[in-house]
Amino acid sequence: MCENRYFYGGQQTELRLDLQALIHHNNNSTTVRWAMADLVFFDCNCRLGPDQFAAEGVPLDAESLLRMMDRVGINEALVYSSLSVLYAPSVGNRRILENTSEHGRLHPCWVLLPDNTGELPDQALSLMLKSGANAARLMPSHHRFSLSEWCCGPMLGELAGAGVPVFLDYGIEHWSGNNVDWEAVECLCWTHPLLPVVLCGLGMADNRFLYPLLDRHPNLRIDLSYYQVEGGVEEIHSRFGAKRMLFGTAAPKSDPGCAISYISYARIPEPDKAAIAGGNLKKLLQGVKA
Amino acid sequence: MTIAERARRGEPLNELRIIDAHAHLGCIHPCHITAPAVEEKISAMDALGVEKSAVSSFLAIGPEVERGNDELAEAIRRFPDRIICYAVVNPRVREQVIPELTRCFDQLGMTAIKLHPHFHGYSIEDSICEAVFEFANSRACPVLSHSFGSPDFVRRTSGKYTDMKIIPAHVYHDGGRIDLTKLITVARDTHNVFLDLAFSVVPYATVEKIAAIAGADKVLFGSDSPMMAMSFQIGKVAFANISDEEKRMILGENARRVFGE
Q1: Which of B173, B167, B205 is nearest to B84 (CA)?
Q2: B167-194, pLDDT tens digit by residue?
Q3: Could you tell me the pTM of the whole model?
Q4: With B237 labelled, which of A2, A156, A194, A265 sits at a CA distance of 20 to 30 A?
Q5: Residue B184: strand, helix, or coil
Q6: Which residues of B fall within a CB distance of 8 Å from A228?
Q7: What is the ipTM of this complex?
Q8: CB–CB of B255/B221 below 8 Å?
């Protein structure tokens, strides 16, 4: 027997596992070969690296992450470093380049901070783009900063000028919380209309905030890793178009299967499904100006 | 093709005869429910190849028990082969429990019971629930409850009401409040406790871990649809690192046993 820890709604739960039983399960599994004609899944919300809270068996290095992706059928992933979250972005951003350099299916994403404190190198955006990282993640709650112009204005302006997609992560742990600073999202999208903003981890109780923002701001998109509104893909597709949604898993913290089936079973035309599964993210990354 | 391969392609899994053991009709106030009606439920089921959904009324687990049960009865009337109905009662209104359950079972065609202690303001461990358990035991029917209390209570109840099927809902949802491993172990050790997989936060490999401890024969696919998407919730089973035989059990075979279908 061993102890494994999970987080749920900010609370820690311990689940003791019968490892023998689990090993039996894993030995029965097979890696699936996915047909070329299938949807191409490009995960926009994936984390890589050490995590002191992770349960045993959670894929934390590139090789095991790729094995997980093979097993469930995820072709590529945009990955940020766990060290940027659990330690420091300055270290995590270096590490994610090292960890992805030999794996063409894993695309690095930097976690940025406002430049007022000098924690990231000078010309961070330029360095980021030269290193091949074409996406940025901002975590204003976790890293304790404001998205307002007085705090992030210059950085946001540079990102918008280069067309770098920004993944906005408010650290949502459960749909019932009120984590997102919706006023800040509105202000960000309004002030920087050319900045592609992807709001991460929204849940099934966010539509009353989300719809008016999607309506007002064509540069706003969402990651579907936790969205799970019944008929939600179809509804956003119908109201705002397929390009406003991106496939994301929040793996390996979350199980990736739910996010896959949420898209594969969506009742929308196949080309739009393909755009959500991977095409939209690919276009965003290709649209970055060096 | 495997179940995972087919799910990745979005193919309906009709021949698995899937039963969603935890679903609803209607609305719930924090959420924009895009599909509250039974026709929309059937459409969502068809997309996945779900044969039946076991449904309770959001209205009944909220402010209007009888009216909610009546609305649900209309769904059975229209889709008798697709809908299994949970009768809802509020044990705090003691004098209504047995008459309402009797009406639901004998007149409205319902075959299971749903309790929502959180929404109706009581504890499942209160003695007021004993009348519900006695009724369920006499009908040998399932009782799904949003929370089924402590693992020790579940174990005691399992031993006292041996013909009732006990379904603690949202097994993972109770993280932090109960000893999850102990609850899963109770399911393993008892003949009439089954674990519902409807939960919004799905940590990596959760289904694998629950099935490994409790046994795949004690786990039920549930979605909480339309509060959560059936197509989202099914992914945790369809892509789990377990055998297809175990997936068949979780997705349908176990529920057929529990609901007598």
Answers
A1: B167
A2: 999 987 645 556 788 999 999 999 999 9
A3: 0.92
A4: A2
A5: helix
A6: 200, 228-229, 232-233
A7: 0.95
A8: yes
